[in-house]
Amino acid sequence: MTSSNISLTQFLIEEQRAGRVNPQLRLLIEVVSRACKRISIAVGKGALGGVLGDAGEGGQANINVQGEAQKKLDVLSNEILLEANAWGGHLAGLASEEMDTSQPIPDKYPRGNYLLLFDPLDGSSNIDVNVSVGTIFSVLRCPEGVTSPTDADFLQPGTAQVAAGYCVYGPQTTLVLTVGHGTHAFTLDREAGSFVLTTRGMTIPQETREFAVNMSNQRFWEAPMQAYIGDLLKGSEGPRGKDFNMRWIASMVADVHRILTRGGLFSYPLDSKCAAKGGKLRLMYEANPMSFLVEQAGGAASTGRMRMLEVTPSGLHMRVPVFMGSKAEVDAAVGYHQAHDAQAH
Ligand SMILES: O=P(O)(O)OC[C@H]1O[C@](O)(COP(=O)(O)O)[C@@H](O)[C@@H]1O
Ligand SMILES: [Mg+2]
Ligand SMILES: [Mg+2]
Questions:
Q1: Atom number in ligand 1 closest to CA 281
Q2: Are the C-beta atoms of 128 and 139 separated by less than 8 Å?
Q3: Computed from CA positions of residues 74, 300, 173, 44, in that sequence, does the dihedral angle turn out positive or negative?
Q4: Looking at residue 2, what is its pLDDT?
Q5: 8-199 and 210-344 share one CATH topology?
Q6: What is the ipTM of this complex?
Q7: What is the CATH architecture assignment of 8-199?
Q8: pTM to 2 decimals?
Q9: If you classify domain 210-344 with CATH, what class do you get?
Protein backbone atom coordinates (compact mmCIF):
# COMPACT_ATOMS: atom_id res chain seq x y z
CA MET A 1 0.00 0.00 0.00
CA THR A 2 1.21 3.49 -0.76
CA SER A 3 0.90 6.09 1.98
CA SER A 4 -0.51 9.60 1.50
CA ASN A 5 -0.96 12.57 3.76
CA ILE A 6 -4.71 12.54 3.26
CA SER A 7 -6.75 11.72 6.34
CA LEU A 8 -10.22 10.16 6.14
CA THR A 9 -11.65 13.55 7.18
CA GLN A 10 -9.86 15.34 4.30
CA PHE A 11 -10.88 12.59 1.87
CA LEU A 12 -14.53 12.97 2.87
CA ILE A 13 -14.38 16.77 2.49
CA GLU A 14 -12.98 16.25 -1.03
CA GLU A 15 -15.79 13.79 -1.76
CA GLN A 16 -18.33 16.33 -0.49
CA ARG A 17 -16.86 19.05 -2.73
CA ALA A 18 -17.11 16.64 -5.67
CA GLY A 19 -20.80 16.10 -4.83
CA ARG A 20 -20.33 12.42 -3.97
CA VAL A 21 -21.35 12.67 -0.31
CA ASN A 22 -23.52 15.19 1.52
CA PRO A 23 -22.72 16.59 4.99
CA GLN A 24 -25.01 14.09 6.75
CA LEU A 25 -23.40 11.07 5.08
CA ARG A 26 -19.96 12.52 5.75
CA LEU A 27 -20.82 12.85 9.46
CA LEU A 28 -22.18 9.29 9.49
CA ILE A 29 -18.94 7.86 8.08
CA GLU A 30 -16.86 9.95 10.51
CA VAL A 31 -18.92 8.70 13.46
CA VAL A 32 -18.65 5.05 12.35
CA SER A 33 -14.89 5.43 11.88
CA ARG A 34 -14.56 6.88 15.41
CA ALA A 35 -16.53 3.94 16.81
CA CYS A 36 -14.20 1.58 14.91
CA LYS A 37 -11.22 3.28 16.56
CA ARG A 38 -12.76 2.56 19.96
CA ILE A 39 -13.43 -1.07 19.02
CA SER A 40 -9.86 -1.37 17.72
CA ILE A 41 -8.55 -0.20 21.12
CA ALA A 42 -10.78 -2.71 22.96
CA VAL A 43 -9.71 -5.57 20.64
CA GLY A 44 -6.06 -4.56 21.06
CA LYS A 45 -6.24 -4.74 24.85
CA GLY A 46 -7.36 -8.38 24.72
CA ALA A 47 -6.94 -10.19 28.04
CA LEU A 48 -5.62 -6.99 29.66
CA GLY A 49 -8.96 -5.29 29.06
CA GLY A 50 -10.99 -8.25 30.34
CA VAL A 51 -12.79 -8.39 26.98
CA LEU A 52 -12.04 -11.95 25.88
CA GLY A 53 -14.41 -14.89 26.23
CA ASP A 54 -18.15 -15.39 26.14
CA ALA A 55 -20.79 -12.90 27.23
CA GLY A 56 -23.30 -14.05 29.84
CA GLU A 57 -23.46 -14.70 33.55
CA GLY A 58 -23.09 -17.72 35.84
CA GLY A 59 -21.68 -19.89 33.06
CA GLN A 60 -24.85 -19.25 31.01
CA ALA A 61 -24.03 -18.07 27.44
CA ASN A 62 -25.91 -15.15 25.85
CA ILE A 63 -27.56 -16.47 22.68
CA ASN A 64 -28.26 -13.82 20.03
CA VAL A 65 -31.01 -13.67 17.39
CA GLN A 66 -28.75 -15.69 15.06
CA GLY A 67 -28.83 -18.58 17.54
CA GLU A 68 -25.12 -18.05 18.25
CA ALA A 69 -23.35 -17.58 21.61
CA GLN A 70 -22.24 -13.95 21.93
CA LYS A 71 -18.66 -13.03 22.82
CA LYS A 72 -18.04 -10.16 25.24
CA LEU A 73 -16.54 -8.21 22.35
CA ASP A 74 -19.64 -8.80 20.18
CA VAL A 75 -21.72 -7.09 22.87
CA LEU A 76 -19.21 -4.32 23.56
CA SER A 77 -18.72 -3.50 19.85
CA ASN A 78 -22.48 -3.37 19.37
CA GLU A 79 -22.85 -0.96 22.30
CA ILE A 80 -20.03 1.26 21.02
CA LEU A 81 -21.67 1.56 17.59
CA LEU A 82 -25.14 2.20 19.05
CA GLU A 83 -23.93 4.81 21.51
CA ALA A 84 -21.77 6.65 18.95
CA ASN A 85 -24.57 6.86 16.38
CA ALA A 86 -27.61 7.63 18.54
CA TRP A 87 -27.45 11.40 18.89
CA GLY A 88 -25.61 12.84 15.85
CA GLY A 89 -28.69 13.69 13.79
CA HIS A 90 -27.47 11.70 10.77
CA LEU A 91 -29.56 8.55 11.25
CA ALA A 92 -33.22 7.59 11.33
CA GLY A 93 -32.55 4.04 12.56
CA LEU A 94 -30.08 1.24 13.09
CA ALA A 95 -30.05 -2.54 12.70
CA SER A 96 -27.43 -4.96 13.92
CA GLU A 97 -26.60 -8.63 13.50
CA GLU A 98 -26.63 -8.80 17.31
CA MET A 99 -30.12 -7.29 17.83
CA ASP A 100 -33.50 -8.98 17.28
CA THR A 101 -35.12 -5.98 15.60
CA SER A 102 -34.08 -2.60 14.22
CA GLN A 103 -34.08 0.49 16.46
CA PRO A 104 -35.37 3.91 15.43
CA ILE A 105 -33.35 6.83 16.78
CA PRO A 106 -34.97 7.79 20.15
CA ASP A 107 -37.40 10.74 20.07
CA LYS A 108 -35.15 12.86 22.31
CA TYR A 109 -32.49 13.05 19.54
CA PRO A 110 -32.69 14.70 16.10
CA ARG A 111 -33.32 12.25 13.25
CA GLY A 112 -31.44 12.13 9.95
CA ASN A 113 -32.08 10.56 6.57
CA TYR A 114 -30.01 7.39 6.75
CA LEU A 115 -30.29 3.83 8.02
CA LEU A 116 -27.18 2.10 9.33
CA LEU A 117 -26.78 -1.68 9.45
CA PHE A 118 -23.78 -3.46 10.93
CA ASP A 119 -22.07 -6.65 11.96
CA PRO A 120 -20.34 -5.12 15.00
CA LEU A 121 -17.70 -7.82 15.21
CA ASP A 122 -17.19 -10.25 12.39
CA GLY A 123 -15.14 -13.41 12.84
CA SER A 124 -16.08 -13.79 16.51
CA SER A 125 -14.57 -17.28 16.74
CA ASN A 126 -11.14 -15.69 16.18
CA ILE A 127 -11.30 -13.13 19.02
CA ASP A 128 -9.86 -15.33 21.73
CA VAL A 129 -7.01 -16.64 19.56
CA ASN A 130 -5.62 -13.24 18.46
CA VAL A 131 -6.56 -13.55 14.79
CA SER A 132 -7.99 -10.63 12.76
CA VAL A 133 -11.63 -9.68 13.31
CA GLY A 134 -13.57 -6.67 12.03
CA THR A 135 -16.67 -4.48 11.81
CA ILE A 136 -18.81 -4.41 8.64
CA PHE A 137 -21.36 -1.67 7.88
CA SER A 138 -23.92 -0.74 5.25
CA VAL A 139 -25.79 2.55 4.73
CA LEU A 140 -29.25 2.90 3.16
CA ARG A 141 -31.56 5.87 2.71
CA CYS A 142 -34.56 6.00 5.00
CA PRO A 143 -37.67 5.85 2.76
CA GLU A 144 -39.21 9.26 2.05
CA GLY A 145 -41.74 10.40 4.65
CA VAL A 146 -40.75 7.75 7.25
CA THR A 147 -39.76 9.33 10.54
CA SER A 148 -39.66 6.25 12.76
CA PRO A 149 -38.39 3.36 10.60
CA THR A 150 -39.37 -0.25 11.28
CA ASP A 151 -37.71 -3.45 10.02
CA ALA A 152 -39.64 -3.26 6.72
CA ASP A 153 -37.96 0.07 5.87
CA PHE A 154 -34.55 -1.63 5.95
CA LEU A 155 -35.54 -4.35 3.46
CA GLN A 156 -33.91 -2.75 0.42
CA PRO A 157 -31.70 -4.57 -2.11
CA GLY A 158 -27.92 -4.07 -1.99
CA THR A 159 -28.08 -1.83 -5.08
CA ALA A 160 -29.78 0.79 -2.84
CA GLN A 161 -26.72 1.12 -0.57
CA VAL A 162 -25.22 4.61 -0.56
CA ALA A 163 -22.09 3.59 1.33
CA ALA A 164 -20.52 0.46 2.77
CA GLY A 165 -17.31 -0.43 4.52
CA TYR A 166 -15.46 -2.56 6.98
CA CYS A 167 -12.71 -2.07 9.49
CA VAL A 168 -10.31 -4.97 10.01
CA TYR A 169 -8.54 -5.20 13.37
CA GLY A 170 -5.36 -7.04 12.47
CA PRO A 171 -1.62 -6.26 12.60
CA GLN A 172 -2.87 -2.93 11.22
CA THR A 173 -6.33 -1.43 11.70
CA THR A 174 -7.61 -0.72 8.18
CA LEU A 175 -10.89 0.90 7.19
CA VAL A 176 -12.09 0.13 3.66
CA LEU A 177 -14.85 2.32 2.29
CA THR A 178 -17.02 2.92 -0.75
CA VAL A 179 -19.55 5.65 -1.39
CA GLY A 180 -20.17 4.26 -4.88
CA HIS A 181 -17.09 5.75 -6.55
CA GLY A 182 -14.37 3.14 -6.08
CA THR A 183 -13.13 1.34 -2.99
CA HIS A 184 -10.51 3.01 -0.84
CA ALA A 185 -8.37 1.85 2.10
CA PHE A 186 -7.36 3.94 5.13
CA THR A 187 -4.84 2.73 7.71
CA LEU A 188 -5.12 3.85 11.33
CA ASP A 189 -2.10 5.87 12.43
CA ARG A 190 -2.24 4.71 16.04
CA GLU A 191 -0.03 7.53 17.36
CA ALA A 192 -1.91 10.32 15.56
CA GLY A 193 -5.29 8.61 16.11
CA SER A 194 -6.46 9.19 12.55
CA PHE A 195 -7.18 7.07 9.50
CA VAL A 196 -4.85 7.90 6.58
CA LEU A 197 -5.63 7.10 2.94
CA THR A 198 -3.25 4.28 1.94
CA THR A 199 -4.87 2.93 -1.25
CA ARG A 200 -7.09 5.01 -3.51
CA GLY A 201 -9.08 2.83 -5.90
CA MET A 202 -8.40 -0.76 -4.83
CA THR A 203 -8.53 -3.12 -7.81
CA ILE A 204 -9.16 -6.85 -7.68
CA PRO A 205 -7.32 -8.81 -10.39
CA GLN A 206 -9.85 -10.49 -12.72
CA GLU A 207 -8.09 -13.87 -12.63
CA THR A 208 -6.85 -15.78 -9.59
CA ARG A 209 -5.28 -19.00 -8.40
CA GLU A 210 -6.49 -18.71 -4.81
CA PHE A 211 -9.80 -19.66 -3.18
CA ALA A 212 -11.21 -19.38 0.34
CA VAL A 213 -13.79 -21.84 1.63
CA ASN A 214 -14.31 -23.94 4.75
CA MET A 215 -13.33 -27.31 3.27
CA SER A 216 -14.58 -29.22 6.30
CA ASN A 217 -18.11 -28.66 4.95
CA GLN A 218 -17.33 -30.34 1.62
CA ARG A 219 -19.59 -33.37 2.09
CA PHE A 220 -22.55 -31.12 2.98
CA TRP A 221 -22.33 -28.95 -0.19
CA GLU A 222 -24.68 -29.04 -3.17
CA ALA A 223 -23.60 -30.95 -6.32
CA PRO A 224 -22.46 -27.86 -8.34
CA MET A 225 -20.20 -26.69 -5.50
CA GLN A 226 -18.74 -30.20 -5.16
CA ALA A 227 -18.03 -30.20 -8.92
CA TYR A 228 -16.54 -26.68 -8.92
CA ILE A 229 -14.13 -27.20 -6.01
CA GLY A 230 -13.37 -30.74 -7.25
CA ASP A 231 -12.08 -29.21 -10.51
CA LEU A 232 -10.03 -26.56 -8.65
CA LEU A 233 -8.38 -29.31 -6.60
CA LYS A 234 -7.44 -31.23 -9.76
CA GLY A 235 -5.23 -28.22 -10.54
CA SER A 236 -3.06 -28.28 -13.66
CA GLU A 237 -4.19 -31.84 -14.40
CA GLY A 238 -7.88 -30.92 -14.44
CA PRO A 239 -10.16 -28.84 -16.70
CA ARG A 240 -9.01 -25.53 -15.13
CA GLY A 241 -5.42 -26.22 -16.23
CA LYS A 242 -3.77 -24.45 -13.29
CA ASP A 243 -2.90 -25.15 -9.65
CA PHE A 244 -4.88 -23.32 -6.96
CA ASN A 245 -3.85 -22.31 -3.44
CA MET A 246 -6.31 -22.18 -0.52
CA ARG A 247 -6.66 -19.78 2.44
CA TRP A 248 -9.39 -19.73 5.12
CA ILE A 249 -9.09 -17.29 8.04
CA ALA A 250 -12.74 -17.74 9.12
CA SER A 251 -13.14 -13.97 9.49
CA MET A 252 -14.97 -12.75 6.41
CA VAL A 253 -13.45 -9.28 6.83
CA ALA A 254 -9.92 -10.68 6.80
CA ASP A 255 -10.56 -13.10 3.93
CA VAL A 256 -12.23 -10.41 1.81
CA HIS A 257 -9.51 -7.90 2.69
CA ARG A 258 -6.90 -10.31 1.30
CA ILE A 259 -9.00 -10.69 -1.86
CA LEU A 260 -9.38 -6.91 -2.30
CA THR A 261 -5.60 -6.66 -1.91
CA ARG A 262 -4.35 -9.50 -4.12
CA GLY A 263 -7.38 -11.23 -5.67
CA GLY A 264 -9.02 -14.58 -5.00
CA LEU A 265 -12.43 -16.13 -4.54
CA PHE A 266 -14.30 -16.07 -1.22
CA SER A 267 -17.12 -18.53 -0.80
CA TYR A 268 -19.55 -19.60 1.87
CA PRO A 269 -21.88 -21.80 -0.18
CA LEU A 270 -25.15 -23.44 0.71
CA ASP A 271 -24.68 -26.69 2.64
CA SER A 272 -27.14 -29.16 4.11
CA LYS A 273 -26.36 -27.90 7.64
CA CYS A 274 -27.41 -24.32 6.88
CA ALA A 275 -29.85 -24.94 3.97
CA ALA A 276 -32.95 -24.43 6.13
CA LYS A 277 -31.70 -20.94 7.03
CA GLY A 278 -30.75 -20.13 3.42
CA GLY A 279 -26.98 -20.07 4.03
CA LYS A 280 -24.52 -19.09 6.75
CA LEU A 281 -23.73 -15.44 6.08
CA ARG A 282 -26.15 -12.58 6.55
CA LEU A 283 -27.30 -10.61 3.48
CA MET A 284 -27.81 -7.22 5.14
CA TYR A 285 -24.79 -7.09 7.47
CA GLU A 286 -22.17 -9.15 5.61
CA ALA A 287 -22.94 -10.11 2.01
CA ASN A 288 -24.36 -6.80 0.73
CA PRO A 289 -21.76 -4.37 2.10
CA MET A 290 -18.89 -6.67 1.07
CA SER A 291 -20.44 -7.17 -2.39
CA PHE A 292 -20.71 -3.40 -2.89
CA LEU A 293 -17.01 -2.96 -1.94
CA VAL A 294 -15.94 -5.87 -4.16
CA GLU A 295 -17.94 -4.63 -7.20
CA GLN A 296 -16.56 -1.12 -6.74
CA ALA A 297 -13.06 -2.65 -6.90
CA GLY A 298 -13.86 -4.37 -10.22
CA GLY A 299 -14.77 -7.76 -8.75
CA ALA A 300 -18.06 -9.67 -8.74
CA ALA A 301 -20.41 -11.03 -6.08
CA SER A 302 -23.12 -13.64 -6.45
CA THR A 303 -25.25 -16.12 -4.55
CA GLY A 304 -24.14 -18.65 -7.15
CA ARG A 305 -27.43 -18.06 -8.95
CA MET A 306 -27.88 -14.28 -9.06
CA ARG A 307 -26.04 -11.01 -8.50
CA MET A 308 -25.88 -10.49 -4.73
CA LEU A 309 -26.80 -6.79 -4.86
CA GLU A 310 -30.10 -7.60 -6.63
CA VAL A 311 -31.40 -10.02 -4.00
CA THR A 312 -34.70 -8.80 -2.52
CA PRO A 313 -34.36 -9.14 1.26
CA SER A 314 -37.16 -11.11 2.92
CA GLY A 315 -36.07 -10.28 6.46
CA LEU A 316 -33.51 -8.28 8.42
CA HIS A 317 -31.49 -11.40 9.28
CA MET A 318 -31.87 -13.19 5.93
CA ARG A 319 -28.99 -15.52 5.07
CA VAL A 320 -27.55 -16.25 1.63
CA PRO A 321 -24.88 -18.36 -0.08
CA VAL A 322 -21.88 -16.18 -1.01
CA PHE A 323 -19.34 -16.14 -3.84
CA MET A 324 -17.25 -12.99 -4.29
CA GLY A 325 -13.90 -11.75 -5.53
CA SER A 326 -12.00 -11.98 -8.82
CA LYS A 327 -14.58 -11.65 -11.56
CA ALA A 328 -13.47 -14.53 -13.80
CA GLU A 329 -13.49 -16.93 -10.84
CA VAL A 330 -16.92 -15.84 -9.58
CA ASP A 331 -18.21 -16.31 -13.14
CA ALA A 332 -16.67 -19.80 -13.20
CA ALA A 333 -18.40 -20.77 -9.92
CA VAL A 334 -21.72 -19.37 -11.19
CA GLY A 335 -21.23 -21.36 -14.43
CA TYR A 336 -21.16 -24.66 -12.48
CA HIS A 337 -24.45 -23.70 -10.78
CA GLN A 338 -26.07 -22.70 -14.10
CA ALA A 339 -24.96 -25.93 -15.79
CA HIS A 340 -26.30 -28.00 -12.88
CA ASP A 341 -29.63 -26.16 -12.75
CA ALA A 342 -30.09 -26.39 -16.53
CA GLN A 343 -29.56 -30.17 -16.38
CA ALA A 344 -31.98 -30.52 -13.48
CA HIS A 345 -34.82 -29.00 -15.54
O1 LIG B 1 -16.56 -21.11 11.29
P2 LIG B 1 -16.93 -21.17 9.84
O3 LIG B 1 -18.08 -22.08 9.55
O4 LIG B 1 -15.74 -21.45 8.97
O5 LIG B 1 -17.51 -19.72 9.47
C6 LIG B 1 -16.69 -18.63 9.35
C7 LIG B 1 -17.51 -17.48 8.87
O8 LIG B 1 -18.41 -17.10 9.89
C9 LIG B 1 -18.22 -15.76 10.25
O10 LIG B 1 -17.37 -15.69 11.35
C11 LIG B 1 -19.60 -15.19 10.60
O12 LIG B 1 -19.53 -13.93 11.17
P13 LIG B 1 -19.79 -13.62 12.75
O14 LIG B 1 -18.53 -13.94 13.49
O15 LIG B 1 -20.10 -12.16 12.66
O16 LIG B 1 -20.96 -14.45 13.18
C17 LIG B 1 -17.53 -15.13 9.03
O18 LIG B 1 -16.76 -14.03 9.35
C19 LIG B 1 -16.67 -16.27 8.53
O20 LIG B 1 -16.40 -16.20 7.17
MG1 LIG C 1 -19.98 -11.75 10.60
MG1 LIG D 1 -20.64 -10.70 14.09
A1: 11
A2: no
A3: positive
A4: 53
A5: no
A6: 0.97
A7: 2-Layer Sandwich (3.30)
A8: 0.96
A9: alpha beta
